[in-house]
Amino acid sequence: MRLRLVRKHTTVDFFKSWKIWIGISAVLVVLSIVSTLTMGLNFGIDFKGGTTIRAESSTAVDIADYRAALEPLGLGDISIAEVFDPSFRDDQYVAQIRIQAQEGQESIASDIVLRVEAALQGVAPGISFPSVESVGPKVSGELIQSAALAVVIAITVVLIYIWLRFEWQFAIGAVGALVHDIILTIGVFSALQIKFDLAIIAALLTIVGYSLNDTVVVFDRVRENLRRYKKKDLTEVLNLSINETLSRTVMTSVTTLLALVSLFILGGDVIRGFVFAMIWGVLVGTYSSVFVASSTLLRLGVKRDWSKPSNTDGNQFANIDA
Amino acid sequence: MLQIEGWKRVLIWATCVIGLIFALPNGFYSKVETYNDSKVAGLDAMGWPSFLPSGLVNLGLDLRGGAHLLGEIKLAEVYTTRIEAFWPEVRNVLREERATIGAIRQQDGGEGELRVRIGNSDAMDSAMEAVRSLARPVTSLTGGLTDNIVVSAIGDQLIVMLSEAEKLATDDRTMAQSLEIIRRRVDEAGTREPTIQRQGIDRILIQVPGLGSAQELKDLIGTPALLTFQTVVGQTGNPNGSAGIGNELVQSAENQSLYYILERNPVVTGEELTDAQPAFDQNGRPAVNFRFSTTGARKFGQYTTDHIGEPFAIVLDNQVISAPVIQSAITGGSGIITGNFDVVESTRLSTLLRAGSLPASLEFLEERTVGPELGQDSIDAGKIACIIGFAAVLIFMAMSYGTFGIFANIALIINIGLIFGLLSMIGATLTLPGIAGIVLTIGMAVDANVLIFERIREELKTAKGPARAIELGYEKALSAIIDANITTFLTASILFVMGAGPVKGFAITLGLGIITSVFTAIFVTRIMVVIWFEWRKPKTLEV
User: Fold this and answer.
1) B451–A130 C-beta distance less than 8 A
2) For B188-229, what is each residue's pLDDT tens digit?
3) Do A149 and A131 belong together in one domain?
4) Chain B residues within an 8 Å CB radius of A272
5) N or C: which end of chain B has fewer CB within 10 A?
């Protein structure tokens, strides 16, 4: 007996209520943009500059005590948050302390770190500092620039690649889905105020890759079916293609999610935000490749005459055999 | 029909075996690490068979613990020093023209400028001409030759600056020198496998694994340690007092309100030291013993002979650490620096003096320290997460595709082995996001197989017999597999090029994972399916 997540033969009409789906997507995109503009992103020190200190002690963290100890140092804006993780020992209490970038200096001066550490040792004897990170405003400015550039380049390269391999309508559809995914991911980071740092950019680009992977598989089938059913109307061809690839779409999403969820739960708190972004991206990416990318394709219409094989022919790799 | 030629089979299996052999050392990490260490040390290496590869995946600082520093060298500081060194020559040529240009006087210039006021501003052209004659050719950016100095004039002031080509050449020298000095300092501290590399125009990246705190490293690297012995002209309590031309005002390290007026031109500098060791003075206070080179000893001997009874200042990084009175001529070439040190400071100072001074000051832009325990925690958590995630995917695949699922699982295990093999072969660094990349690859690696298996299922519906269905499945799924993976690979490449540090690590594992997963899906599972098919010759097929 085989485990089947999707029935053998499905005939779901994905475009019957396409207006609803596009509507939902549009609302989510708008909400994301509004949230990002009003609440902003909780930028980590990678992008904002400043210092984070991870403090570990064997006694419970009292944020008020910590704050009281650090207040006299006059370091400006300080945020203290306790970190929880199932992998911690019973007597392991971890706090993350963030100090704003200091006036007139790039990376934080050694003596400030020493003073912070001494002050905390006063309230929690035996406290240790397993990680100290400090990024100056100069580098953080450059990091944010190169991160934004990376995302833009990735999208452009993908646009060109799909355009070359398919048709421009496919490229627009795929990139529309990508932009949708990225905006929604940034939106959820803003709404939940999860720390947005360099690793999240890596996650964003992975989402780009993943979402694209899904979209390309559907599009590949669309191209094939367009050749096979020359008379069928585009909605029918798209529906057929999505239905045919549905089982694969679900299978791959589930295996990827299985691996990611395990990393989310067990992988420790250091990369939890990163993994969260990817889980969200897999969910949104799967949804968008079906609804956003294909709906866009349907609106744009495509070239119907695929009879003449061109150099962008989909089977150019088909003669590779093992 | 379903066939794979013999040589292809051999090639596929050989690739797998070679990859796995390269991955093998990582299974015995600490053992192989000890083996490699003793080999590097030239000792008799034991504990690992020498015929096996011993390359390991490097663990990034976030996993092993260590300190990461990004520093910026203030290159412009060197321009000022360089241009000021021109003053004696400029003075000499201008003095020869005294008849036409009148009296000359050095002015306080901006950074990187040498300003000279001349008495007769009408003769500025001939003054400029005279100074230009000092220019020496340097290779410019375009490959041609240009002057190393630029001479201009404002009113009665003549301004000499380094030319752009000369600045570039100076920058390169400064960076090379700084890298060398930093390397020596880090080596003096005796840490293991430090990475010290130039980044961009004026930056230096320093990574030292296994170091618990960046503070110590920062203190060691960030101090210019510019030591000079200078003539004392006088003392003052006024920080804004005028020192006079050719002199400078330097604060005392011990007494913040005391300023020394010193002759700017040093008698001897730290560059002429050959050795420095931490020591104690006759009162038992920490101090630093030093020894001059032959030329340094001669200069210092001559100076002390001529100036008995006068004070001279020992200046470190623009602070007078002491200003002793010369009791007798010091001709032995060695001496002692006393000051307000503790033992740690005197040890550090002697280390710095031995390694030499930085040509310009260094500012830290970024600093990250991860303790070894936190790194170990991350490895442990990552390991468990990988194993659980891996097991979940294996079970899920077997339940969904039966025998074919088992094939995909074997391919997946080989795939992970190949990733580690490749990582070890190219000596890549595994970071925490890199582990996430591997986990993601586990999830996505099955994608190619899923595409093929789903396609085989579809082809079976049209009932052309199992062999044909399998063949068509592989053939038709290929374009989707290639397109989907090329796009992901493109994004991984962009991440690799644009990303910094840990993100790069993620891009590497993701990119390699894509290559190995495509290989295992279209070659390894296929060969298994073919062998199984030849053996069982099934009439019907359930995928």
Assistant:
1) no
2) 776 667 888 898 889 999 888 877 667 777 877 877 788 888
3) no
4) none
5) N
